[in-house]
Amino acid sequence: MFGAVVADPAATLYYPDWENYSGCVVGGAPDYMKLNPDQWMFTTLAECCETHYPWLVECDPSNSKLSNKWCMNWNQNKCAQECNAWDYTYDTQSECCDQRMWWDKSGCMN
Predict the structure, then answer these.
(1) Residue 76 CA from chain centroid, whole number
(2) Can you list the pairs that 10-13 forms with residues at least 24 positions away whose Cβ atoms lie under 8 Å?
(3) Which has the least CB within 10 A, 3, 13, 58, 83?
(4) This model's pTM is above 0.90
(5) Mean pLDDT of 50-68
(6) CA angle at residue 104 from 103 to 109, to 5 degrees?
(7) CA 105: distance to chain centroid?
(8) How do strand 78-80 and strand 24-26 relate by DSSP bridges?
Protein backbone atom coordinates (compact mmCIF):
# COMPACT_ATOMS: atom_id res chain seq x y z
CA MET A 1 0.00 0.00 0.00
CA PHE A 2 1.41 3.37 -0.99
CA GLY A 3 1.86 5.98 1.68
CA ALA A 4 1.72 3.45 4.50
CA VAL A 5 4.03 4.10 7.40
CA VAL A 6 6.11 1.11 8.39
CA ALA A 7 6.88 1.03 12.09
CA ASP A 8 10.51 0.64 13.10
CA PRO A 9 10.60 -2.49 15.31
CA ALA A 10 13.74 -1.14 17.00
CA ALA A 11 11.75 1.86 18.27
CA THR A 12 10.30 -0.22 21.11
CA LEU A 13 13.45 -2.12 22.10
CA TYR A 14 15.94 -1.27 24.84
CA TYR A 15 19.61 -0.75 23.98
CA PRO A 16 22.71 0.42 25.91
CA ASP A 17 23.17 4.20 25.71
CA TRP A 18 26.97 4.43 25.56
CA GLU A 19 26.90 8.07 24.44
CA ASN A 20 25.08 9.48 27.48
CA TYR A 21 26.12 6.79 30.00
CA SER A 22 22.51 6.58 31.11
CA GLY A 23 21.98 2.84 31.11
CA CYS A 24 19.47 1.32 28.71
CA VAL A 25 16.99 3.42 26.78
CA VAL A 26 14.28 2.98 24.14
CA GLY A 27 14.23 4.50 20.67
CA GLY A 28 16.96 6.14 18.64
CA ALA A 29 19.39 3.22 18.59
CA PRO A 30 22.48 3.65 16.42
CA ASP A 31 22.44 1.88 13.07
CA TYR A 32 25.08 -0.67 14.07
CA MET A 33 22.79 -1.85 16.88
CA LYS A 34 19.78 -2.02 14.58
CA LEU A 35 21.81 -4.16 12.17
CA ASN A 36 22.61 -6.65 14.94
CA PRO A 37 19.59 -6.50 17.28
CA ASP A 38 20.22 -9.95 18.78
CA GLN A 39 23.39 -8.60 20.36
CA TRP A 40 22.32 -5.09 21.30
CA MET A 41 18.55 -4.83 21.64
CA PHE A 42 16.12 -6.28 24.20
CA THR A 43 12.38 -6.35 24.80
CA THR A 44 12.77 -5.57 28.52
CA LEU A 45 14.82 -3.10 30.49
CA ALA A 46 15.91 -5.87 32.86
CA GLU A 47 17.43 -7.95 30.03
CA CYS A 48 19.34 -4.98 28.65
CA CYS A 49 20.67 -3.93 32.06
CA GLU A 50 21.68 -7.47 33.05
CA THR A 51 23.56 -7.93 29.77
CA HIS A 52 25.26 -4.56 29.32
CA TYR A 53 25.32 -2.97 32.80
CA PRO A 54 25.40 -5.79 35.37
CA TRP A 55 27.33 -3.59 37.82
CA LEU A 56 24.98 -0.60 37.53
CA VAL A 57 22.06 -1.20 39.88
CA GLU A 58 20.57 2.17 38.92
CA CYS A 59 20.16 0.98 35.32
CA ASP A 60 16.92 -0.80 36.22
CA PRO A 61 15.04 0.92 39.07
CA SER A 62 12.81 -2.13 39.48
CA ASN A 63 15.84 -4.34 40.16
CA SER A 64 15.36 -5.76 43.64
CA LYS A 65 18.66 -7.65 43.87
CA LEU A 66 20.03 -5.21 46.45
CA SER A 67 16.87 -3.55 47.69
CA ASN A 68 16.43 -5.90 50.63
CA LYS A 69 20.13 -6.11 51.54
CA TRP A 70 21.91 -4.09 54.20
CA CYS A 71 25.20 -2.19 53.79
CA MET A 72 27.23 0.32 55.78
CA ASN A 73 26.43 3.99 55.27
CA TRP A 74 29.60 5.59 56.63
CA ASN A 75 28.14 9.12 56.45
CA GLN A 76 25.51 8.13 59.03
CA ASN A 77 27.51 5.39 60.80
CA LYS A 78 24.53 3.07 60.34
CA CYS A 79 23.63 0.08 58.25
CA ALA A 80 21.01 0.99 55.67
CA GLN A 81 19.17 -0.58 52.75
CA GLU A 82 20.37 1.88 50.12
CA CYS A 83 23.25 -0.15 48.70
CA ASN A 84 25.35 0.21 45.61
CA ALA A 85 26.51 -2.75 43.56
CA TRP A 86 30.05 -2.41 44.96
CA ASP A 87 29.01 -2.38 48.65
CA TYR A 88 29.50 -5.34 50.94
CA THR A 89 25.94 -6.44 51.64
CA TYR A 90 24.29 -8.45 54.40
CA ASP A 91 20.94 -10.14 54.83
CA THR A 92 20.11 -8.36 58.11
CA GLN A 93 20.91 -5.06 59.76
CA SER A 94 22.27 -6.91 62.76
CA GLU A 95 24.70 -8.92 60.62
CA CYS A 96 25.82 -5.73 58.87
CA CYS A 97 26.49 -3.95 62.16
CA ASP A 98 28.28 -7.02 63.58
CA GLN A 99 30.67 -6.98 60.63
CA ARG A 100 31.08 -3.28 59.85
CA MET A 101 30.61 -1.39 63.14
CA TRP A 102 30.97 -3.94 65.93
CA TRP A 103 32.31 -1.33 68.39
CA ASP A 104 28.99 0.58 68.42
CA LYS A 105 26.33 -1.89 67.36
CA SER A 106 23.51 -0.08 69.17
CA GLY A 107 24.39 3.20 67.43
CA CYS A 108 24.67 1.40 64.12
CA MET A 109 21.18 -0.05 64.40
CA ASN A 110 19.33 3.13 65.43
Answers:
(1) 24
(2) 10/34, 10/37, 10/41, 12/43, 13/37, 13/41, 13/42, 13/43
(3) 3
(4) no
(5) 74
(6) 135
(7) 30
(8) unpaired
